[in-house]
């Protein structure tokens, strides 16, 4: 092996992490290496974070650049070579077919359906896949978030242009009301979609259209609002967190800071000091 080849090999970085979803592994890699043609027995869904590469795929030669979503199917012959002098950086979720079965079902297609786009330059798809990757690595996994993001990610990668059929003025009202009435309840995506008589795919699109948020984010906001009211009423933080549906006080605090810019502990201190002072 030449000195240049050794230098390039030494600069490679490949990290693999288990995730909250059984049968799903997240791989983060930065490499100048060229890969020969090979296959996997799993699905892959990822994003190119930097650099660019050219690769063979089941749909011919493709080029992926920073910001593009990339995917592969079980048994699909592919390779990969960097473009330019630097490495390319990608983050990929590798999923057993069983791990994607519900996401295919949520889109109304069979589990053996092919992901149609080896490269997809669509910003919304990139945002969905990156959000899914983050959700899979959260210390406290949100099953509703993971299920919903998987359905959305697969929807982007199917070979169809599915129009949104809204129907009634607010077709997701039953699910919205159920979440508002009891935000602590741990309802899954299939249950919420059934309440509205929609497939999981159409439910997700209709819910976002009606509320501006996916269902898991909507539920988090309702949990935060419930917990905030309880803290202002004098309930200890740990008890407010549990009653609102958070896994623990740390989980509550993390989401509270993201939403309000300060800790719920500050809110509790202000509530004890002055019942009239609000944030």
TrEMBL record:
Taxonomy, superkingdom: Bacteria
Domain HTH araC/xylS-type positions: 173-270
Pfam families in the record: AraC_binding (PF02311), HTH_18 (PF12833)
Keyword flag Secreted: no
Gene3D superfamilies: Homeodomain-like
Record key words, sorted: Activator, DNA-binding, Transcription, Transcription regulation
Protein name, entry field: Helix-turn-helix domain-containing protein
The species this protein was found in: Pannonibacter tanglangensis
Phylogenetic lineage: Bacteria, Pseudomonadati, Pseudomonadota, Alphaproteobacteria, Hyphomicrobiales
């Amino acid at each position: 092996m030449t000195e240049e080849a050794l230098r390039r090999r030494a600069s490679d970085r490949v990290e693999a992490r288990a995730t909250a979803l059984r049968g799903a592994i997240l791989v983060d890699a930065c490499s100048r290496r060229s890969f020969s043609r090979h296959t996997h027995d799993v699905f892959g869904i990822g994003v190119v974070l930097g650099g660019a590469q050219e690769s063979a795929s089941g749909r011919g030669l493709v080029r992926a650049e920073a910001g593009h979503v990339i995917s592969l199917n079980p048994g699909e012959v592919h390779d990969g070579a960097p473009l330019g002098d630097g490495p390319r950086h990608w983050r990929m979720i590798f999923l057993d077919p069983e791990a994607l079965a519900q996401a295919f079902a949520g889109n109304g297609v069979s589990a053996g359906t092919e992901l149609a786009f080896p490269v997809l330059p669509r910003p919304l798809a990139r945002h969905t896949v990156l959000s899914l990757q983050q959700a899979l690595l959260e210390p406290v996994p949100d099953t509703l978030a993971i299920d919903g993001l998987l359905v959305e990610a697969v929807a982007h990668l199917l070979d169809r242009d599915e129009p949104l059929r809204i129907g009634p003025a607010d077709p997701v009202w039953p699910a919205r009301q159920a979440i508002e009435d009891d935000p602590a309840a741990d309802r899954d995506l299939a249950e919420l979609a059934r309440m509205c008589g929609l497939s999981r795919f159409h439910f997700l699109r209709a819910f976002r259209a009606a509320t501006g948020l996916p269902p898991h984010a909507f539920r988090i906001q309702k949990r935060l609002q419930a917990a905030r009211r309880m803290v202002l009423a004098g309930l200890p933080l740990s008890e407010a967190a549990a009653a609102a549906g958070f896994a623990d006080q740390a989980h509550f605090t993390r989401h509270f800071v993201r939403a309000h810019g300060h800790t719920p502990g500050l809110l509790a201190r202000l509530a004890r000091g002055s019942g009239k002072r609000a944030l």
